[in-house]
Structures are given as C-alpha cells and as structure tokens.
Amino acid sequence: MRCTEQRKMPDFVVSPKSWFALLLFLHGYALCQALTEEPNSVIKILKYLLQTILSNGQTNADVDDPLQSGTTQANNSGEDFAQSNSSYCDTECRVHRLQGLDIKVNKESPSVWVHDLSNVKHGNWNVIFPEILEDSLQQNIENISVNTSKPSLLSLGCRGPPCAQCIVSNCDSPALSVPDCNPYLLYGLSLPLDSPHITIYWRPEAAYGLTLTLDKNREDVKVPENDRNRTHRIDIKTREKYVQVDIPSLHRGIILEREEVENAFIKIESWGQSSRWILRCNIATTETTTLIANTNQGSTNISSGNLQEDFGLSQNNTKATAKKMISDLKEVSLLPSDIQRAVDALTALEKEFEKELNLTENGRALELAKEYTADVIEVSGKVLEKPSPWQELAEADRGRASGKVQATVASAAVKVAELLSNRTEDFETENIHILVSSRPANVTTRRYDHVHYPNTYIELPELFYRGYVGEDNNVRVVFISYTTLHSVTNTIPLDPKQASPDVFPAKGQVNSGIINAIVGQKGLWRAGEGEATAVKFGHVYNGEEFLLANASCVWWDEAANAWNTSGCTLNYTDAHVTICRCNHLTSLALLMDVRGFLAKERVREVS
Known about the structure:
Blueprint: E1 4-6, H1 16-37, H2 42-54, H3 66-69, E2 88-90, E3 95-104, E4 112-114, E5 120-122, H4 130-138, E6 143-156, E7 184-192, E8 197-203, E9 209-214, E10 217-222, E11 232-238, E12 242-247, E13 252-257, E14 265-270, E15 275-278, H5 286-295, H6 318-331, H7 336-358, H8 362-383, H9 387-391, H10 395-419, E16 423-428, E17 432-440, E18 447-449, E19 457-459, E20 474-482, E21 506-510, E22 514-519, E23 533-538, E24 546-557, E25 562-564, E26 568-573, E27 577-582, E28 587-597, H11 600-606
Antiparallel strand pairs: 1-2, 3-6, 3-7, 4-6, 5-6, 7-14, 7-15, 8-11, 8-15, 9-10, 9-14, 11-12, 12-13, 16-17, 17-20, 18-19, 19-23, 20-22, 21-28, 22-28, 23-27, 24-25, 24-28, 26-27
Helix pairs in contact: 1-2, 6-8, 7-8, 7-10, 8-10
C-alpha cells in the first residue's frame, strides 16, 4: 500500500520567522530560475509566492505549490495528493543518481523530482509539473527532457518529495541502495560514469533497437522482433580508458573509448518508441524475478560466456594484450556471447595497434605490423575454430561478427603490404593464411590457391596492376584464405560427413572456402573494361553425394554485413567445381542450396 508520512523537520525550522525567511529565499531562487530558463512558469510561481505570503508563511495543503505538485503522477486517476507540501513525503518514491532523462509524454508519464535545480543545464523543462504534462498532451509534444550538468538526484513517479531525501532542509544524502523494481516508461537516460559497475534492465516493447553514446563514440544495437518483449540486463563497467557494455541476452559486448572528462556519462536511448526501464533492482528480488519470468517466456536464456569480462582489455602494449588474448582463448570453450566479446576485443586491439604504430620509428614499423598480423590471425583463427557457437547467434549478429573478423584481418595484412618492399611475407595458422606481396609488376603474383580446399583459387587479370604501381615501382597485393569462416554463417555442418537428414533442405549455404584478394588499398580495385578476376571454387558439399542447386557467385558486402551478387557472374558449374568472374575484389565465395542427400541409386547413375 502506498502511503505518505509526515516528515520530521530539523530543529532550526521551529521558528516561524526562520521558516518564512527560508521560504522567501527558496521562492525567490525559483523565480530567478523560472525567469531565465522557464518563462511559462512565472505566473504559477508568482501565484504561489502571493499565496504563501498571504498565508503568513504557512505551507498548508490547500496552497498550490507548482514545484511540489509537479511530483503528482500522471496516472493517479485524478487522485489528489493533499499532503504534497514540504511537511510530507512519499514512502515509495525512490531516488536515482542520473544525469538526464528523456520522458515519453502520455498519461503514463512519470513525474520527476529534481533534487537540485542548480544542476539543470538544458532541456525543454527544468522540472516536470502535471500542468506541463497536460499542456504537452494538448500540444502533441512527444517527449520532455531533463538534463543536468553533473550527477544529480532525480526521483520518478512521486506524489511528493521522496522520504529518502530531505528537499527543503540540509540533511543527509539518501541511501541509494534501496531497490526500485518499478519499470518506468522512458525514451532514454544518461548514467554518470563515476561508478565501476552499473546494472539496469530494459524491455524494448515497441522499440526496435538501442543506441549507446559516449563522448563522440556511438554504437547501435538492433533487437530482433522476438526479443522485444523480453527484459534484458545491461551491465555497464567503467574503466580508465573505456567503458564496457554487456547485454548477455542479445550476445552483445561493446567497448566504447572514453576521454578523461569531468562528469562523464553514457547516454542510452531506445529507437523510435519509448520503452520500459528498471533503474535499480536486485536480480534476486521477487519483483524483478517475476517480471523477467513473465517477459522472457519462449526465449532461450543465454549464458554470459566463459571469457572474462575484461578479455582483450589491458593497459599493456598491443603485443602483450594479443598474447594474453591467445592464451585466454586456448583455455575456454567459446559460447555465443564469447564470440561477440572476442570480436569487439579485436576491434579495440586494432585501434590500440594504430596508435602504437603512429608512435613507432620507421625502422621498427614493419616488424611491429608483422607481429600484430601474426597475432591477429591467431586470435581470429581461435574465434573461428568451431562454428557451433556462431550458429546460435542471431543472423544479424553472425553477419556483424563475421564482417568484423574479415575487416580486422584484411586491415592488418594491408598495413604490412604498405610497409613491405621487394619481397613477400606469409602468415599462417590452422584456420587462416595470408600472402602479402610487394614486387615489381613484371614478377608480381596474380594467382593464389586456397591452402585448405583443393580446386579453389583466384587469378587476377594479366594487367591487373595498371594504376596500382607504387612510387617504388612495386605492386602491393594481399591474398587471404579461410578454412572455417564459410561455415559460421551456414546452418549445415562444417564437415559434410557429419551432416544428417534433419539439416536439409538448406538454402543459401556457403559451399566453398572463402578467398580474398586486395590490390593496393582495400576495396579500391576494379577490373578494366573487358577484364575480370577468375575465381574457381571446389565444392565442400559435392554434387555426387548431395543434391545441389542455385549456384551464385558472391562477394562480402561490408556495408550490409551480408553476401552480395552484383559484379560477379557464374561461368561454369558441375558436381565438383564452379567458376566465377568478378569485376572487383573482396572476400569471394560460392552460395548454393543443399537440398539433401542423393539416393544411392542416383549416385551410381551420376558416376
């Protein structure tokens, strides 16, 4: 049962004259605030001042205080809160330490109590009054923002000042350990980054995604439709140089670099629609357990993973960090959320390498780039080693993670090529092979065979180097082949011998090893008129044992994180190989429908 209690005032308030003087000071301050930041509230505050003076300084319940009446919830069904004066407080009103709120304006909108108006820096209102909410409804205003210049105490859904905090008198700060498992309807909120670990809960409902913003860094999280009525835990961990955000149920681990600024905060906003937010609730409490049980029906509860939360995050140099990542990956079996965490750690490692390389002398730069490339393909090879955790990810997350691995590996190889002259370099692990060539045009390499899959190679046009000869008369070419990458986006097993009838029919499967070529800078090369790159793919699932159909030559579209057919044509296909021609370069592969096993009689007939 929600109730109010009379607040015991401090000793110095016993004197009516002192109380009246304090009131005049506070109301004068409020008037000053209103004149500078809230002109529309001047009439309300003047009215309140006049009523206060006429009432000889008494704050009776029948006096209309716009600042305190603003704490009346919009969904109170017209219930009056007669005790909304400074002598009463709301026993269930909770205090939260925030730096801003974006509130959906409707009948469910929570009222907001700002404990220190001096912190309010911008927003369309300093503090929300019921009258303002009503005006906003009439004017079709969609949202109201409250933002503060530093971490501040805000209360939501209050029918009076929260009993956990004295508003008028100078008493102790509230205990923020009191749980609040109420879901508030908000567009978003800003959380101060002065705490090492924050956990909130989010239920998207009509929202289809989430945006995280920290300084100039921004990351978007798309939520699949079947996950929008789930309650998702968001863990935010603050470190010296970065902030790590984990959403285990969406298999997302995000690293955001941070600057050393005072009163730093992370802003979290839902896409398109307001959604439900739980700001401070212990997962063990009945309210949250019930809420999550009700909203997660029919969904799989995904573990947070086997990798440590600080995987790949180190204050050491790039080499030491990479070696630690390799060591950690050897010790665990990866779960779906580990894939996301490892891929994000690779991205963070690349940024650190670029900073380190910029500070490295020219004589040492090539060796640093080679060491980094060797470490990157070892980390990436471990992440790609087993397709099973990948196949448990949502399709969009698989595409994103696969694209990031390819981009990181390719960027590392290109950096070596830029620093190399008159030689070739090989980098190889069990799952990835890289050949980097920087040679004169008359002796440069233009054909590359996949190191794992036979009958799979790429051959560049005879004069592919035109327009790509460097100042040192070298042509820089990078070739990359992957052993297991093709399988991470498939639904059929990596090894055809492990296939069972229940996995078929399977449409749009990558039925070849993935092979990549880069001339000069990544993504720039185009074939000349009448020319094309020839690519031959040996089938992983061959047509003598499996029913194959709809062969398509494809390239990896980094913008869409998906396969694309434009610019590639099919020249020939049979049971074992397919030959394609493409006018540009990136990761190339063969897509086919694998409809099932061929009957033994059919196999003999084909033979």
